Amino acid sequence: MKIGLEVHVQLPTKSKLFCPCPTTDAPAPNTHVCPVCLGLPGARPMMNGKAIEYGILLAKMLGCTIRDTTWFARKIYFYPDNAKNFQITQYDRPLGEKGMYYLNGKKPIRITRIHIEEDPGKIKRVGDLSSLVDYNRSGIPLAEIVTEPDLSTPAEAREFLGQLIRDIRHTIDIPDDGERSIRCDCNLSVGIERCEVKNVTGLRNVERALTYEMVRQTKLLKAGGKVVRETRRFDEERGVTISVRKKEMEADYGYIDEPDLGIFNVKELADSLKIKESPHNMIIRLTKEYGIDERTAKQFVSTSVDLARLFEDLAAATDAETARTWTSGAISAGWRAFEARGGKDASEAVSIVRDFTNGKITDTECGLRIKAFLTGTDVDSVNAGSADLDAMISEYLDGNPSVVEDYRKNEKAANRVIGHVMKQTGGAYSSADIVDATKKLIGERL
Amino acid sequence: MSQTSVLSSLSEINEKYRMFRTITSETDAGDAKFLFSAKDNLTSKDMETCSGSRILEGYRPPFDATSIARMREAGGLLVGKTNMDEFGFGTFSTNSAFGVPRNPYDLERSCGGSSGGAACAAAVMEGHVAIGVSTGGSICCPASFCGVYGIVPTYGRVSRYGLLDYGNSLDKIGIISSNASDLGKYVGIMAGADPRDPTSCVQPAIGARRKLESVAVPKGAAEGVSEAVRKAFADGLEALKGMGVDVETVEMPSLKYAIPAYYVIATSEASTNLARYCGMRYGHQYGDLSLKFDDYFTSFRSQYFGEEAKRRILLGTFTRMVGFRDRYYSKARMVRQSIIGEYRSVLRGCDAVLTPTMPFVSPKFSDISIMTPVESYKADILTGPPNIAGMPHASVPCGYDGDGMPVGMQFVADHWDEGVLFSAAEEWEKNFDAVRPEVSI
In this model, does residue A177 exceed pLDDT 70? Predict the structure, then answer.
């Protein structure tokens, strides 16, 4: 089975691709519009340079070749949400081509191209015979990423899409606004001929649509039928794909270069832009560079890229093993509190751990000071707090001595204590702290 | 004639010549510094803008074209929108949905096109400034037929914001007037970078006026033109020599490919530009809403586009399709580059390339009605080359035939070198005996 995706992502520019209209949520239909995005006669596009920047960053993230010049094209098709009855997109000179992206750091997925284009408006059906068109979305910048048919299963496609979206969000700083903002055209073939399911929104639906299509095509072939090349759409409510048009009915879009925008020399810009390491690549690098296991690396990075960076700083100041121990322990435990109070610079933690490795402070003092620093309190109150916590755990263990016995057989027995304390304290302590303290106190009774 | 009395006579003038599609309701010129008109394909807030097409009938744009806005800021009063071939598709202004302008020298003849109404207004009203638009000859042709001065600045010199596109890579906004000095004056007002048209943002400032010292005449430029044009052009060359201008003959073999290449590029772009006119959002609307959207669009486009518009949409759609794009559209763009190269190499050795403007004087409407489309396309043979190359060019009157119909000649300068055209037209005007049409109202 072969699956290829065309992924559309809205770029987080403040204004639209070719006009100054805002991209934020509009108060009412057709309020964030102007002559340009309404396609009024005489208006013409002006390039939003920020969209090109985002496009280049994504092209780099996908390992694409970026040529020195890029330009736009008109794709002509008649549709009511298409204000000019042509869409300004890229055709023979996309921003990036021939990239390579690794699923889970292992499986290579070839990237055909990435280009920038304008979003059309939205059609809202009102009753059987009429529809309304809202052009607020018209002209919002989109990046379209096209893969080769290198994905093997619907589940893998979903996994790929999830990773891709996380990496895109990280690379161009898109806030996590749910998966609905991702639109995907899904191509699947189980034999020779493929079908395209257009405009599927969200990870779950991509997997559902592909699975339905896989089953449909397989059944069809088994029954001696033939899959015909066609475009289908996905009915989310019923979970089925429906034929929209056959291949021979597919439009010849009659592309021409967009004469109003000209040619963009992007070499200098592309050379000057550096991409942030993707979370995924960071996990792989941490594993390799510091010899820590993948699970730990994943935990650091998924908690926060800043936490992972602190780990690296610590490793540089001490050694990888010390850095791993303290980052997994006291630092992870206090990290949420640190972020919650708007903490940015955590380098203080590095000097605390150095004091420990230099023998200036003890193991326990180091833990307390890190906690005090991250939570923004002083050592005494941390001390008092952990004394309270210890007391509560000890009390529970006194009343339920069987926990200690069970713990010998299965460490999961500690969860009972943790659950109890959490309930009692209502989130006053981080779960990492409770786990640490419980294990320590059970250990004393073993 | 005071400006206010010109305003009050516009309707009457228009009865006779049909140069206006819309006339201002203003009756008092107030302290307007000058009166001007604009071709009906430039948007104006206070007047309909239809580009000569029925499909846009009733459309009042919400914004002014930059060219019109700048003329207004300079103290100009927009007196009306001038008649034109539908979307600029024509050479005689006979393809308008709103009547046909009449030549001031002979009402039975054409004003030329597609800015026919603009040239007519400039010829009839002395001192009137008419904004025209040229894609493949639509300023110089009518200027020549109406015996007035017309200039097409370099592509990108005047912002096209607010211009209803014909061929975006070819469209240029210019001036037609009976006074040569108006060309430089009003192009200067309209020119300059405008962020709303990115292609206007790469221009150098208009250079200082420079005296025309030498012209090159392409070999064979006067072949295939009518005897009257040949003679008037020869007289023009002699007059130029008398003014101290060097005249040399040059080979420009690629110019003959300009017309086929022009029609491919222009119709390819036009067929995409006209896609938006579909009975939705503006112009004629509210047809049979029970139709499927594409049938609905087709019903409007069939009913309201004129015959020539449909022909060019079909031509341009054909040249863009898979399998034809490389053979036509892509090749035409290579031809454009070689024509630009040829002009550049000639213009390194002289100030301007000179030819007659049109191969014949304005024809009678009765003759136009029996022309085939290809015959009328061929009328652009001399105006096509500078237009496809985006070179600035100007037409000046250079003589009259036996019936008193004007003949024009056309100077082509290098990109951004309008300065030499302004001074050439002004010098020429001092030495040329113009015969004004008799205007009796």
Answer: no
